[in-house]
Amino acid sequence: MSEGTNLMSHYKFEVPEIVFGRGMLSQVGCCARRLGGRKIFLVSDQGLFEAGWVDQVMKSLLQAGLEFVYFDQVSINPKDHEVEEGAREYLRHGADVIVGLGGGSAMDAAKGIAILSANGGRIRDFEGTDRIVRPLPPMVLCPTTCGTGSDVSQFAIISDTEKRCKLTIMSRCVAPNISLTDPDTLKTLPEEYICTTATDALSHALEAFFSIAATTLTDVHAVKAIRLLKGNLVEAVHEQTPDAMENLSRASLHAGMAFSNSLLGIVHALAHPIGGFYNANHGSINAVLLPEVIRYDLPVVTEKLPELAWGLGCKGADDEKVVAEVVQGEVDALLEACGAPRSLRSLGVQREDLPKLARNALEDACLITSPRQADFNDLLGILEKAF
Amino acid sequence: MSEGTNLMSHYKFEVPEIVFGRGMLSQVGCCARRLGGRKIFLVSDQGLFEAGWVDQVMKSLLQAGLEFVYFDQVSINPKDHEVEEGAREYLRHGADVIVGLGGGSAMDAAKGIAILSANGGRIRDFEGTDRIVRPLPPMVLCPTTCGTGSDVSQFAIISDTEKRCKLTIMSRCVAPNISLTDPDTLKTLPEEYICTTATDALSHALEAFFSIAATTLTDVHAVKAIRLLKGNLVEAVHEQTPDAMENLSRASLHAGMAFSNSLLGIVHALAHPIGGFYNANHGSINAVLLPEVIRYDLPVVTEKLPELAWGLGCKGADDEKVVAEVVQGEVDALLEACGAPRSLRSLGVQREDLPKLARNALEDACLITSPRQADFNDLLGILEKAF
After folding, report:
1. Which end of chain A is more exposed for a tag (fewer CB within 10 A), N or C?
2. Is residue B1 over pLDDT 50?
3. Do residues B245 and B371 share a domain?
């Protein structure tokens, strides 16, 4: 693997059918029926039930003449035993289509349940790339945060509770048939999650843009996500205006379309072991790592910086060195202004764990598409700076 | 329908699986097999056969262990009787997957054959939106020009030879399963088609960008297409350098992804009756109409012009009026520099036909998404200016 920022010469690009708009949760039933469903396995969580969104989906399913089974035994950073239990329930009830409603946790749990219900075994058997043999049941995924991108991505991330790490499962069949975003659901998103999920989207967009697997098809979505975040993140965090919130939903969707096809980099390679080990918030970890990884990547991505600078709204930055400084400064300023956490220490990470985390990151699939080939010392250096 | 440039509040976005890269024609067999094919109906034309590309596809099909039937009775602006004959051949041979290789004519013919083989009847029965009832056979479409976008679009345009007009068929099921672009095929594209098909892509991108059904998901692709055309069209036309040609392929793909989801406008509403009546080249007609339609649209799309100006590489154009002039000037200059035709007269259009053409355009589905609601006099005025 060589360093550089050239576009891939041969590539694939695939995204689910996308439905987007306020009030669109009322269409979940039609979508599930269109996929051939009769008995729907609905995966969500307690918070969304209390907020009334699960009820809206249930109504939509009933209006479409569909039966459903509701499953909400899903926690943050969804666990191996939870998806294994979900798959048993799916099979016991003879369900045929899966609807996931929630943040990355509920949607990744829905994906894990889909994998196991069709393929059997333990979820860890499917870790890595293209390990899934039998086709999954059709899926409709409905994000209710503004960052995960799981609703369009070819990834599922499940926690291995024995090894205290995250399993990265990557396969085109893990992407749902339909991604349905109803930005109204953000109205009840707890305030702290606006920042942490939107900074997750920012890290998706930036890592997708710098990835060695980036193409013009992914770059356009990455840059649009960055533009939307730059223009709306601070307002959304501080004022929660509906338009700004809707634009964060949009940003999350664009970022998801980008990274699902160009993959990610060092931020996520490091965030997975940290999240798995401390059960810490994924978006917060990314927000802390992002500035350091950008600083590390910048020297090898200079060709792409003018387009990124435009995405960040910087005018007239043409000189290579100036652009790099401007980009770095803009990302730092954006994270600062939205109140993102700025140190791993503040997230509960212990200094003595850093070498182990760096070693685990070396095994993560996200490292493969990093624009700069990082070794153990590089990764440890980034962790120390971010500590 | 009101005038304006606001984004849609509710929308869908759908694109086929995309495969892109030099030499990728060798993968057509794998793609067709993945779609469940055993006996492939291969639609192409004499020119591509002579250039050796049909042979490459046949080899790829054989290597994948597939039988095939070859059908090349397709002319420019494919005719109703041609697709009706193709469907009979498809059924007679018991084919199960369709591969279309060529420009818009061969690919639209492949789509027409798919419609009739599954639904029976005459092709004119399917004119309009969502008139197709039964699911179509799986399709792989491989563009060999740099403009049509048929390989990703939900449109098929077939000539009605009795009425001397074009039938616009629009349905999500008309989009293929896989769009496979091998930019190497442009090596043998006759020189005059580089300009005419690339200006078709330019009109797709600009009409998609100004469409009232535009969304951020389509805008990013429209603007990228415009950037790629601005940066490569003149070099491709005059020097045919492989990189410039490949970027035209990419531009065509981006423009196709945009217009398939945001639809088009007045350029295409007028181009369809003109093409149907005179059997004239579609890209040439678009190139002539485009500057006049932009002039007509500009007053109602001012909000979107800064992003477009960026796409056209214009720096520092912030003032509304200046931006409009800059955009108009850039498009005019680009068409001039690549030697596009500049008058309807030069394409064989007769002045006395203009009222009839304007009247026919009023019925075209593309008019619905025009940013400015045009009546008969508006359309006639545009035709007269472009004459």
Report:
1. N
2. no
3. yes
Q: In this structure, are A159 and A204 located in the same domain? A: no
- How many angstroms separate the CA atoms of A140 and A379, rounded? 37
Q: Which of B133, B153, B181 is the last residue of a domain?
A: B181
User: What is the residue-averaged pLDDT of chain B?
Assistant: 93
A304 close to B (CB below 8 A): no
Single out the residue of B13, B61, B10, B55 nearest to residue B40, CA to CA: B61
Share of chain A above pLDDT 90, in %: 85
My answer on whether A237 and A372 are in the same domain is: yes
Instruction: Measure the CA–CA gap between A385 and A289, rounded to whole angstroms.
Output: 9
In a domain, B1, yes or no: no
Does the distance separating the beta carbons of B22 and A9 come in below 8 Å? yes
Provide the domain count of chain A: 2
Residues A144 and A259 in one domain: no
* Residue reference for tokens 């709306």: A232
Distance CA A225, CA A248 (A): 8
How much is the CA Rg of chain B, to the nearest whole Å?
A: 20
> In A, residues 310-329, which contact B (CB 8 Å cutoff)?
310, 315-316
**ipTM entry:** 0.90
**CATH number of the domain bearing residue A341:** 1.20.1090.10
> pLDDT of A219-269, one tens digit each?
999 999 999 999 999 999 999 999 999 999 999 999 999 999 999 999 999
Domain boundary among B152, B181, B210: B181
Residues B164 and B245 in one domain: no
* Residues A141, A241 within the same domain: no
Q: State both tokens at B60.
A: 């790829």
A315 contacts in chain B (CB < 8 Å): 316
* Residue B249 domain boundaries: 188-386
> Over the stretch B322-375, which tens digit does the pLDDT of each residue have?
888 889 999 999 999 999 999 999 999 999 999 999 999 999 889 999 999 999
- What mean pLDDT is predicted for residues B245-265? 96
How far is Cα B153 from Cα B147, in angstroms, rounded to an integer? 12
Query: Which burial class, exposed, middle or buried, applies to A318 when counting CB atoms under 10 A from its CB (0-12, 13-18, 19+)?
Result: exposed
Check B19 against A9: CB less than 8 A apart.
Answer: no
Q: Could you read off the pLDDT of B158-193 as tens digits, one per residue?
A: 999 998 888 999 998 999 999 999 999 999 998 889
Q: Per-residue pLDDT for A2 more than 60?
A: no
Residues A167 and A197 placed together within one structural domain of the fold: no
